[in-house]
Structure formats: C-alpha cells, structure tokens
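Students often ask what a holo structure prediction actually looks like on paper. The answer is less mysterious than it sounds. You provide the chain, you provide the ligand, and the output is a string of discrete structure tokens encoding the 3D arrangement of the protein together with manganese (III) ion.
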Amino acid sequence: MAFELPKLPYAQEALEPHISAKTLSFHYGKHHAAYVAKLNELVAGKPGEKQKLEEIILSSAKEKGPLFNNAAQVWNHTFFWNCLAPNGGGAPSGVLADKIKAGFGSLDKLKEELKAAAVGQFGSGWAWLVLDRGQLKVTKTPNAENPMILDQTALFTIDVWEHAYYLDFQNRRPDFVQTVLDKLVNWEFVGRNLR
Ligand code: MN3
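The corresponding structure tokens follow.
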C-alpha cells in the first residue's frame, strides 16, 4: 500500500460529548479510510505510487478529477483531526495570538468569521484559517479543494461535509461549528502551522 490511514491523534471517544465516538467511527473509520483506499487504487502501478501526497495534490489540482479529490481528502482529514483536541478551545497564545489580534481585532472576531465561512459554504466543503502572503485570512473551499492549491498555508480547518456533523447535530451545522470553535480547537497545533 502506497498510502496508509494515519492514526487518529486521540481515542475515538476522546472528543465526546461534542463529537461522538460514533461520528468518528464513521468519519475516520469509514470516510477517511475510504479516501485512502481509493487513492491507493488510483495510483497502483502508476508514478503516483512513489510520490508524496502533497505532490499528487498539486499535480492533479488542475483537473480536479478522482485522483485530486481522493488525495486532497486524505490530506484534509488528517489535517482536520490534528486541528482538534480533547479539552481544546480556549485561546491561542504567542505569535498566533498576536497575529489574530492584528488581523481580526480579537479572537471572537476570528471565530465569527470562521463560523460565517463554515455556515456559508453551500453544500460540501471546508472552512479554513490560512496564511496568505504573511496575512491571516479566513476562506472556504468546496468539496476537496484546499489552501495548498491556492499557494496558501493552512493553519486550521473545519470539515463542513454533512458526514462531519449529521449524527450528532443533524441539520444544525452552525451548532457544530460553534462547538468546534469553543470546545475543540487545538490552538497549539494551529500555532505550530505558522512556522
Ligand atoms: Mn469529512
């Protein structure tokens, strides 16, 4: 197997009561795993087998076909799991805190922008905090698209595909997003992505 499903950085029940073990068992154990399996199928016997995930994403970004979609979804989900932590939330510190204050005025303002992006993404996709030419920005992307293909550095993301929240929140995407922002963000990981 060229690509492997990375281990979750915490136990499947570790994000409860906010995100259930049942959601993670499907979202990580089925959806994320399926993207890895499909990617392996697509690169079998091809140059992609020996490429890095990032190389595949960048080289297939123009067509946005199955190879891009599965490779990018593998990357996006691995990144998303790392953006969350049991006992997450709270406030960032250090350089990240300074940059948030300079760029958005306050952490609350940043959270408002992230929520608006996440709720405003029509259909499936992702909301992001990115570094774009030295500036923090909030963005959103449809389907599997991500900041890498726009020459931006991803700092944080929220998956807003329905499979991310439907078992726990049903149609209430805004409540899911608010819960992630208030209770689960791993600000330490987000800050590390600045470097
Ligand atoms: Mn997902």
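The first helix runs from residue 21 to 43.
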